[in-house]
C-alpha cells in the first residue's frame, strides 16, 4: 500500500497538513491510535453533556488562517469575547490583571510594596543588563520581584511542579509573543493611579482588559477536526482510527501498523509526518543512537488529569475559564462549557472541567479517581465555585504527554533529537507533541499548513527554527 504521505496522529496539526497536501492531489494515510480524531482538541459526549479537554479557544494573528478555518467549519463557528478571572486573596479578580483591581484586593502594606516595586522596576529597567535564561528572570525583569512573588511564582510553580527559575524563558517569549510589553507596562502604570471599583463577584459580567476575540464551535472543539475530516474525505484521504503503529523504517519510509486485528504495511513515496510524542516515535524506529536516547531520557512531557463534576445548576459563572494559583486548591483551572455554548449541557444542568497537571507515577497521578473527585469538590467549596450537594455525577480522564516541559536546557536536547529524526530527509516532526512546542490549536494548524507548503514547493522543510521564531500567537 503506497501513499504520497503517511501522517502519524490525527490531531489538528496532522489533519491540517493532510488537508493542504490532499488539496493538491496527493494521497494521504493518517493513522490515529484513539477512537476519535482531534488529539487534545477532542469533544466527548456523556449522558447528554458535551465537553472538551479544558479550554480550546481559537484565535490567531494570522488573518488568512482565521478566514480559512472559519470557512471550513461553517456558520456554527461563533465569535466570543474572552472573559476570565483568577482566584486570589479569597476573591475572584479580573484576568488578565488590572493592577488597581489586584492591589485593592491585597492587604494594604503588601499592595503598597507591590505597587512601589513595579514602578521602581519600570523606571530602572533600562539601566539593567538584559540576561533572561529563566522564566523567573524574564518576569522579574519586566514586572519586578514583588509582582513575581504574587503573580508568577504561585501559579507557575503549581502548574509545572517546579520553580520558575528552572523553566526556560522561551516559555514566556512563546506565550507572550505578539504582546507589546512596552505598551502593556505603560498602560498598567497609567491605570495604577486610578481607583478600581470593579466587582469581585462571580456574577459580575464585566470584561477584563485585553480579553480579545476568539471562536468556538456550537458543538465543541471537535468541530475543527471534524471539518478537516469532511474536507479530507472529499479528496479520498484515508483516516484510520484505533490504528496502532508497530514499526517505522525511516530509510525505506515504511510504517507497519495494526488495525481491526490485522497487520498492514504502508509506504510513503514522499515523506512520513510524525505528530506523536518524541519518545514514542523513537521507540518505533529501526535506527538508534545513544546520545539521542540520553537526550530523550531528560526531555519531559507533563501529564494532565481532567475531572468533570456534573451539577444540578443552570450555570456557575459568566466566565469562559477561571484560574486558581492557590496551592490549597487542588486544580489549576475551571472551564464551564455551557458558558461557551448552551448546547454543551442539558437545560437546568451544567458541568465544569477541572484540570490538574502532574507527572505519571507521582503522588497526584497515583490517586484514585474517587479521591481526585472528592478533593476537587472540597476545593470548589473552598473557592465558592459550587457545593457538594450540587454534584450528581463525575468523570475523570487522564492524558499522558499533554504539555512539553521547557527546562533550562531543553532546546539543546530538542535540536539533537529532531535533527536525528529528520536527518534522512524522509521524516518530519510536527505539532505540539511531535516537535515539542507548547502550541495552541491555531499554532499547530499553522505549522501543518507551513510544512505542507514547504514540501510541495521542495523548500527547506525542518520546522524547528520556524516554530521558535515565526508562529503567530
Largest sheet: 7 strands, mixed
Question: Could you list the spans in which at least 5 consecutive residues all have pLDDT below 50?
Answer: none
User: N-to-C terminal Cα separation, in Å?
Assistant: 39 Å
> How large is the share of residues in beta strands?
15-25%
The overall strand count is 18
The helix fraction, in percent, is: 25-40%
Radius of gyration (CA) equals 23 Å
From the spread of the alpha carbons, the general shape counts as globular
- Total DSSP helices: 16
Keywords:
single chain; 473 residues; alpha/beta; 7-stranded mixed sheet
Q: What can you see in these coordinates?
A:
This protein is an alpha/beta fold and 473 residues long. It has helices at 12-23, 63-73, 99-105, 108-124, 135-143, 145-160, 170-175, 181-192, 223-234, 278-284, 290-297, 337-340, 369-382, 410-422, 441-456, 464-469, and strands at 2-8, 28-31, 43-46, 49-52, 77-81, 84-88, 91-95, 213-217, 238-240, 244-249, 254-259, 262-274, 301-311, 321-323, 333-336, 350-358, 391-404, 427-429. Strands 1, 2, 9, 10, 11, 12 and 18 form a seven-stranded mixed sheet that branches. A seven-stranded mixed sheet has the order 7-6-14-15-16-13-17. It has a two-stranded antiparallel sheet with strand order 3-4. A hairpin with a 2-residue loop joins strand 6 (84-88) and strand 7. Helix 3 packs antiparallel against helix 4, helix 4 (108-124) crosses helix 5 and helix 4 (108-124) packs across helix 6 (145-160). The mean pLDDT is 88.
